[in-house]
Amino acid sequence: MADVIVELEKVNKYFGQNHVIKDFDLRIIEGEFLTLLGPSGCGKTTILRMIAGLEDATSGTIKIQDERVEDKEAYERDVNTVFQSYALFPHMTTYENIAYGLNVKKIPKQEIKERVREMLEMVQLMGYEGRKPDMMSGGQKQRVAIARALINKPKVLLLDEPLGALDLKLRKQMQIELKRLQKKLNITFVYVTHDQEEALTMSDRIAVMQEGVVEQLGTPDEIYKYPGTKFVAGFIGESNIFEGEIIAAKNGILKVAGSSGEKMTLLGSGFDEGEPIQVCVRPEAAVYSKEPKDGFSLKGTVRNIIFVGSQYRTLILLENGQEVKISRGRKDRDIKEGDVVYIYWEDEDGFGIKKKGQETQK
Ligand code: ATP
Fold first, then answer.
1. What is the pLDDT of residues 25-56, one digit of tens each?
2. What is the full DSSP assignment across 53-79?
3. What's the CA-to-centroid distance between 22 and ligand 1, angstroms?
4. Which of 19, 181, 262, 359 has a beta carbon 3.0–4.6 Å from 258's, enabling a disulfide?
5. 178-222 residue pLDDT tens
6. Going edge to edge, which strands form the sheet with 59-64?
7. What atom of ligand 1 comes closest to residue 212's alpha carbon?
8. Residue 106 alpha carbon to ligand 1 centre in Å
């Protein structure tokens, strides 16, 4: 089994009366890029700060490399943190900022020189060693902060929205660079973001959080294709969600009646006849046609078709008043606004969410 490098077990955190982290369990695997993803205020930064030793847990166990660290100071833990705000020393040059940790440790000057050079190359900042932070762009400053955090070769690098202050283009470029760096150095990254696209692009695994708990833990692919709860389905990518009840469950195929009796089918196991279900389908997986399709009776009217650059987005209004979003790469010449259409999907493109998965939702 892969080695666990950071382990949180039944961790709770209260700020006064506010219970922000609730019986939180997570095992982070050595060398992985794990992202904590969730809406603002769900507790991502608090988890990171507790691993770093910048915040105490109210209860529970935190282990780094099998060793309990609750009583260890931040500097005694083999982790480093990169913040959104860079936190560089403003009076120091790039060289001095990156060398800082090694100077504190009284490493010989020649070795420091070599290691700073290696880091400068790695973050592509050769030639900038004499500049101070106020003479550099946001992306360059963040590279200095990353180099400074990596020079001690920590076992784990904690990153709190490190690209949050950058514009979209630079952000995308830095996402690729950071991922490349992580794979090259084989350091465990624990990354905090509320940007689902960033999480899907960079992570080996994502822990989707809501209100102090992990809602779902999995690879980007698993989380996108098989969201376990309605919250995850709505937070990661877009979904059309149909409330319904299972009328037949046989051989891994579910037949469902929607709230107004609309028929639909999907693959699914572990469901029983008569059970309530939420059927989810992604906009890019749903299709429509002028002809009804066996197993489906989702009938609606095309409200509008909008070109959004890379695709066409069609909004269809069902007879029960629900709106369904569908995306397509090409425009369908036969269908125009006002037409009556039938919506369906391939069985494997629908996924069912158990109603009881909603019990944690508010
Ligand atoms: P964001 O994406 O906005 O940074 P987050 O998911 O990182 O949010 P946290 O910063 O971990 O969330 O905060 C979780 C909850 O704890 C919030 O309700 C926040 O107001 C509260 N909180 C965080 N730090 C403190 C503190 N020092 N004192 C009191 N409450 C705090």
1. 999 999 999 999 999 999 999 999 999 999 99
2. TSS--SEEEEEETTEE-TTS-GGGSSE
3. 13
4. 262
5. 999 899 889 999 999 999 999 999 999 999 999 999 999 999 999
6. 18-29, 4-15, 59-64, 67-68
7. 14
8. 36
Q: Could you tell me the distance, in angstroms and rounded to a whole number, from the CA of residue 238 to the centre of ligand 1?
A: 26
pLDDT of residue 46: 97
Which candidate, 22, 68, 80, places its Cα nearest to that of 46? 22
Ligand 1 midpoint to CA 212 (Å): 10
Which of the listed residues 44, 159, 196, 209 should we mutate to test ligand 1's pocket, taking the one with most ligand atoms within 8 A of CB? 44
Q: Are 284 and 327 in contact (CB under 8 A)?
A: yes
Query: Residue 34 forms beta bridges with which residues?
Result: 190, 205
Q: Return the pLDDT at 161.
A: 92
Mutational pocket test of ligand 1: of 8, 11, 46, the residue with most ligand atoms within 8 Å of the beta carbon: 46
- Ligand 1 atom closest to 42 (CA): 6
Query: Which residues lie with the beta carbon below 6 Å from any ligand 1 atom?
Result: 15, 18, 20, 38, 40-46, 194
Once rounded to an integer, what is the mean pLDDT over residues 138-152?
90
CA 49 to centroid of ligand 1, rounded, Å = 11
In the DSSP assignment, the letter for residue 25 is E
**pTM of model > 0.90:** no
Burial of 221 (0-12, 13-18, 19+ CB in 10 A): exposed
148-170 pLDDT per residue, tens: 999 988 999 999 998 888 888 88
| Cα 304 to Cα 258: distance, rounded to the nearest angstrom | 24
Q: Is 36 helix (H, G, I), strand (E, B) or coil?
A: strand
Task: Name the residue with the closest Cα to ligand 1, atom 16.
Answer: 20
Q: Which residue has its alpha carbon closest to ligand 1 atom 23?
A: 46
Q: What is the rounded distance in angstroms from the CA atom of residue 231 to the CA atom of residue 22?
A: 17
**Residue 142: how many other CB atoms lie within 10 Å:** 29
DSSP string, 239-253: -EEEEEEEEEEETTE
